[in-house]
Structures are given as C-alpha cells and as structure tokens.
Amino acid sequence: MRRIRYERHGGRDVLEPETAETPVPGAGELLVKVDAIGVTLPVVRDPAVLAGEIAGEVIAVGEGVTTCAPGFRVTGLCTGHAYAEYAILRDDLASPIPDGASAVDAVALVRGGLVALGALDAASPQSGESALVTAAASGVGHLAVQLARVRGAKRVVAAVSDPAKGDFLRDLGVDDVIVYAEPPAEPVDYALDGVGHLAPALSALAPGGRLVAFGSGGGAVGTDDLLTDAKSIIGFQIARLAPEVYDDLRQELWQYFASGQLRPAVHAEFVLDDAGEAHAVIAGRANLGKVVLVP
C-alpha cells in the first residue's frame, strides 16, 4: 500500500510517499480502506506521528470485534498511521457513516463537530444570547459558528486573522466578522476560543459572560479581569468526555447535517502525495473549512 512518511531534513519537515505492508488488525481493531483523511492543526504542528481522523470501508476486523464487519462504512480517530491507503482504527473509536453522507463529509463533520459542540455545551448557551468564535474559518470554528446559531444564538461574531475570510463566514450565517485586534461592536454573552486569545476574548464578554478555552496557545489573564464583571473562563478538553456523551453528540451532529442546519465546508481535497501542500495550507492559516487528504 501507499502511505506518507515523515522525515526532517535541514531543519524542515518533509512528507514523502513510500510503499509499506498493509497492516493487520489486532484484537479490538478494524482495518479500514481509507477514503478520506482530515488534516488537523496538532498534526501539522507535530507531524512525527501522522495520526488523524479517517473515514472509509472496513476491510477486516480483529479478534473480539462484534460491532463492525467488513463492508461497514466508518469514521473515527486513528491514533496510529492515518496518512495511508489502509489504516488501523480501534473499534471503540469508530462510528458509522449514515447513508447519504460521504467519507469526506464524515471527516469534515465528526471530529471537528464533536469539539465545537462539546465546547458549546461547556458554555451553557441560552436562546437569545450572543456568541463570539475565534479561528472561525477553521475546521472546528466554521462548525462552531453554525452550531451556535442552531442552539439559539441571536448574534454570532466571528474572529479571524484575515478579513478576506468574511464572505465565507457570512455565507454560513455569521452576523459580524472582526480581526483579532478588533473588539466586537457590542459585548457578547459567551465566547469559544480555540487559539489562545484569552485576554481579547475575555474583554469582549458582557458582565457575567463565559469564555470557553478549548485550544492550545498563549495567553494569560488576571483574577481582576474575572472578578470585576463576574466573568468566567471554562476549560474544555474533548478527551474528557464520557463515551456515551460522544455517541449523543455524534447523533446530534448527523441530525443537523441531514436537516441542512449544519454544512461542513471543505477548503480543498489533496491526493495523498500532496500531504505537504495540505499541511502548508493549515500552517499558513489559509483554509476556509476543512482540509482533506483523499488517497
């Protein structure tokens, strides 16, 4: 099979194609013929392990697997080598792809949607409130702005690094688009921050507002910044969710997708050999939605 190998040459990351043996699933594992791979910022930052979200068809199952069989279409987080024509997926991390959805839909929707919806739940949004989402054009952010609206936000503000992303976000239903150095025209009730812009996001909150921090990055705030207007910061980590919560959130995401309320956007589809170009799009913060590899 064909897969991508990571090496470091002359101080730069290099992703090169190679031929490798097709892996064999062990106990509790699935062998998946990969149809789509979602490229994520954490892997771009540290490509030593080319893990990631995959979607495709189950080809074989390991000992003890009872929930999947060859021919099933699944998606999930591959913790091993994901940038390949065939990959191993743990049975407990796999979920079915419903009829009417493609593998590309699945990698654009599920993992990013789980993060976005989980962070939104952490904010305890109420109908009629206003929301701010940072990195709003990213794979997670572009879903978060839509989910905030679905959950009842009356006004959604998108914070981005480049105002040229504004048309893309307004097409998704965003009311206002601002750059990071710019405050919103009016304070918001809650903010979802995936890039570490804690101080600006906190200052954008109305009294009693909630900031959910769910992405790595710099930034620090003082206790006075919280106490003065009774604001709060809530940390969210997707890995902390219980398995049954994952199932509920996935079902909710697919329902929104089926009804047309949630539209996962794909910036571009790259062939496997062009994985380096896909990483460059993410590293340059140029993507509008999800970047996908298609073996």
Automatic annotation (TrEMBL):
Coiled-coil stretches: none
GO cellular component: cytosol
Enoyl reductase (ER) domain boundaries: 10-293
SUPFAM superfamilies, sorted: GroES-like, NAD(P)-binding Rossmann-fold domains
One example GO MF annotation: mRNA 3'-UTR AU-rich region binding
Domain of life: Bacteria
Pfam families: ADH_N, ADH_zinc_N
Alphabetic keyword roster: NADP, Oxidoreductase
The keyword Transcription regulation is assigned to this record: no
Protein name: NADPH:quinone reductase-like Zn-dependent oxidoreductase
Species assigned in the record: Nocardia puris
